[in-house]
Amino acid sequence: MVTIIVVIVVIIVLIAIYAGIYNGLVSARVQTQESWSQIDVQLKRRNDLIPNLVETVKGYGKYESSTLEKVVELRNQMTQVPAGDHQQAMEVSDQLTSSLKSIFALAENYPDLKASAQYSELMEELSNTENKIAYSRQLFNSTAANLNTKIQSFPTNIVAGIHHFAQVEYLKVPEEEKENVKVSF
Predict the structure, then answer these.
(1) Which of 171, 154, 160 is nearest to 26 (CA)?
(2) SS3 at position 165
(3) Helices (H), strands (E): how many in the chain?
(4) Distance between CA atoms of 51 and 153, rounded to whole angstroms?
(5) Higher local confidence (pLDDT), 111 or 27
(6) How far apart are CA 77 and CA 42, in angstroms?
(7) What is the mean pLDDT of residues 23-27?
(8) What is the pTM of this model?
(9) How many C-beta atoms surround the C-beta of residue 36 within 10 A?
(10) pLDDT exceeding 90 applies to what percent of the chain?
(11) How far is Cα of residue 15 from the mean position of the Cα atoms in its chain?
């Protein structure tokens, strides 16, 4: 009778451990998905701000239309990226960020634009949004690292394999942003 009780207790403990490991994996996966959702929210926010920015800047630099067209084209590409393709979304987002920097620089050539309250507010909003995107990317990579560590660690890797948990790819920094800054005096 005692051995039956011991066997039952051992089975209950093993089931509890298994359930705890599984729930930990599910929690890590949900946190990773939620952190991507935060990036998605910020990208949507930026996409919503861009038409207002383009309209504000249009009147100040007719010959700068290629810059505005590029921003609009990239914004439209962002809306077409498949929901699960995080790497493509970040590639287009990085290109859009680069193009937005060109619009930020336009203000230097157009003092009236720089003095515009609407332009200043939009630039502030976009700057804040870019910072939130950067933070959200860091959060995503942290939660992805947590999930990937659990998937690779023993004994969690056994449960992860049984339930087909897949590692998440980290968001990468574009190569051009890794280059040394060129400064001339």
Answers:
(1) 160
(2) coil
(3) 7, 0
(4) 47
(5) 27
(6) 16
(7) 97
(8) 0.79
(9) 22
(10) 44
(11) 36
Q: Answer whether residue 19 shows pLDDT above 70.
A: yes
Q: What pLDDT was estimated at residue 63?
A: 46
> Distance between CA atoms of 117 and 123, rounded to whole angstroms?
10
- % helix / strand / coil in the chain, to the nearest 5? 80, 0, 20
Round to whole Å and give the CA distance between 22 and 158: 10
- Helix, strand or coil, per DSSP, at residue 59: coil
CA–CA gap between residue 67 and residue 61 (Å, rounded): 10
Please choose, from the candidates 155, 144, 118, the residue with its C-alpha nearest in 3D space to the C-alpha of residue 38.
144
Return the structure tokens found at 85: 């393709």
CA distance 132 to 44: 12
Strand segments, DSSP code E, in 25-158 are none
What phi and psi, each to the nearest 5 degrees, are found at residue 170?
Answer: -75, 150
Residues in Cβ contact with 150 at an 8 Å cutoff, skipping those fewer than 6 apart = 24, 25, 28, 156, 160
Question: Cis link prior to 111 (omega < 30° from 0)?
Answer: no
